[in-house]
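Worked example

This section walks through a single chain of length 198. The input is the sequence exactly as stored; nothing has been trimmed or padded.
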Amino acid sequence: MTDQDDGARVDPRVLRTRRLLQDALLALARERTFDEISVADVADRATVNRSTFYQHYPDTDTLLADALDARAALVGADLTDLRPGLPLETPPDVLVRYATHVAENVTLYRSALGEHGSPVAVARLRRRVNALALAGLELHDAPPALPGLPRPIAAAALAGSVIGVLIAWLERDPLPPAQDAATWAWSAISGWPIGVDS
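Given that input, the structure is written out below as tokens.
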């Protein structure tokens, strides 16, 4: 489920149009960088008019964030399925699936999360990881690197670390395995080294 779908029943025609717009944007993102894609480009590719676009999305940033969320959910890599209370020693399967999904769509994610990417997609990812970290801090002590910080501040630090790990991983060429990225990200959020030293 995307941030735009708040759990209420959505008309199937609305979902179909959103999917059409998402597919159009993702197809365009395979051809050029995200900052080169306009609302008119997406509307043309989706064979809808601009007013239809704006009935569903305020901008291409929000559309991209929804498209990424929808694709991750489709492959069982929705980070909202990550729950606190998991063992800290190994990354959970959903995080490995997420990293695998990102690796399989590396060009798109490099564009979306990179320097000229989507602030909405990055902010949404940070918000989710921050909420997970905050929930996790309710069950576990803060990692040794964050002693004495208030929980919201510690959670923000952990979320920033995870985003930093993912972006740094995406910048590496050749791209290290998805398992490594999941391990590094989980280590950043759990605060403990857990086994990959690439």
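What to look for: The two ends are 34 Å apart (CA to CA).
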